[in-house]
């Protein structure tokens, strides 16, 4: 039974440190409701151009087998004509496509579907486009680079303003006998070293300075019998691991990997090749450094095969996308977008946010997204498991990539809130939000948790260890009694505000007008406001820092859910 159907039972908190932390403070008034839209978030996706179908098919990043696309751009209004190269610009939310059939570049909304009209198109005699095949969008310098493979007027790399439209002349053109270009198809930009890599069907890979213009000789070239190249190649640069990946099309289909500075008749560091690989007329490839994978479009059997980035030899793909439902037809180039995890977020776990924007640091097996554990029918991040007398902690951090030195915070004063639900009474269990977390030795963050503990329910502020060797260890700083006011299977709004400059922290919890609806208006505050003020924040807690969600239990079976997790103050305290 839970508190909604049975009287509350007298229980002590069972967590000695928390039992003593009951401090009432003056209340703070928070208004209810918010009409602000959720912050933009986009799932990781796989885009594929289909030359034989004049279409672009878009899938979930990890789609496999005979999976249907999420959406398809196809139809007369799209102006797609034997599309080849594709680039996804997540900064400006656009998709750019090279059309070999009409010597044009067309641009669409990233989320375009169906018979979508382009936002703009580059086409005409002044553009000098000639069989455009590979293309790269450079969001740093706001440019678009295109490889033109046509022998009649092609054999060039043309560069345009990213926003070019109509019969626009290029900003720069690499062409001429000294360039070594010979039916250039693949194109890759190394923004770290300011170099441009071109895959030629000769076959060869020629490398230029990004700002090269005219009849310039390459900085270096990879070509010769030892390279293992086959005709028609695509190229990708991995500046993180100092490598270059190239596809070979004919005779012995392969993906060959070289050192970034390889030159001349270089032997590959490793190659993916052989019947078991599933490679069949590989044309384009896309490197996914977030998931350490490489995807290859196979025009020979209309498939996309995916491998570990470090794969070598005759290895089977991790997964293969093909079949009638997949709608692949002469796939030429793939492009993979990472999830867009905005610094200003508002998350209800209705998509793949957990997998793509969070890292589970403690008890990962007990952290999962889905419908809430209380059965109220809302999407949430759920925390499940059990602990003995020693306290157990579940911890996840909002961060799409592994952090380096410091994580980001949105402002000097940080407000963070979430709706939390605890499924049933069972000794001591809590769930809450984390701010200013750093994952380094000697560093910590702040956690505000709502504890359900019989008649000693408590709102607790604690430090949470960020040291990888101590992840999740909680040390209470202050608490305020809620006097058994927390009902199970009900949603509560938990609000944490941190002012690092003033070393001031406040925490509060509110009911919802409809207990089973976290999207309903806020009602009365539960208990008093927790107010923590010292000369300085606790040792190891500094701004900026990462946000996260934490759960804790002592001698309990934990079943808790969190939704509407946001650092948008207007949604927390409008």
Describe the model:
The chain is mostly beta strands and about 575 residues long. It has two domains: about 290 residues, Methylamine Dehydrogenase, Chain H, CATH 2.130.10.10; about 230 residues, Jelly Rolls (Sandwich), CATH 2.60.120. Helices cover about 0% and strands about 45% of the residues. It contains three helices and 40 strands. Strands 25, 27, 28, 30, 35, 36, 37, 38 and 40 form a nine-stranded antiparallel β-sheet that branches. It has a seven-stranded antiparallel β-sheet with strand order 26-29-39-31-32-33-34. A four-stranded antiparallel β-sheet has the order 3-2-1-24, with no helix packed on it. It is elongated. The N terminus is likely disordered.
Summarize the structure in short.
By secondary structure, the chain is an all-beta fold.
Question: Which bin fits the share of residues in helices?
Answer: under 10%
Principal-axes shape call: elongated
Low-confidence stretches: 1-36, 401-411
CATH class of the largest domain: Mainly Beta
Number of folding domains? Answer: 2
Query: What's the CATH H-level superfamily name of the largest domain?
Result: YVTN repeat-like/Quinoprotein amine dehydrogenase
Mean pLDDT: 88
**Rg, alpha carbons:** 28 Å
- What is the makeup of the main sheet? 9 strands, antiparallel
Number of strands: 40
Predict the CATH topology of the largest domain: Methylamine Dehydrogenase, Chain H
Terminal CA distance reads: 36 Å
**How would you classify the helix and strand content by structural class?**
mainly beta
Count the helices. How many? 3
Task: Quote the beta fraction.
Answer: 35-45%
What is the name of the CATH architecture of the largest domain? 7 Propeller
